[in-house]
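Student: Please help interpret what follows.
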Amino acid sequence: MTVYGIPNCNTVKKALDWLKTHQVEYEFHDFKKKGITAEKLNEWCNIFGWETVLNRKGLTWKKLTKEEQAKIDNQDLAVAYLKENTSAIKRPVIEQNSKAVLIGFDEDNYLKTLG
């Protein structure tokens, strides 16, 4: 299992704490240090939808002008933006067997998906 995120994110911390409490082993992929590929972002967008992968609640997104935000209106533009601004990726993203299964943190979804 791989957990994608950034270590100082509160939502990622909650997810990692949950995984540790439930003794789920994982490898952590830090966007800030390791980056992310357009291919991986497109995979996630195809599973969750680009509107979900793009975190519109975070500071990185909110720093954009309304005009800049309005221009990001499809998956290709979202992926290009997210590749350069990894802090705007909704986190964490959890993959099992190299397939994304969860995005964000919701305890009920974690219990259902990861047991």
Observations:
- The two ends are 13 Å apart (CA to CA).
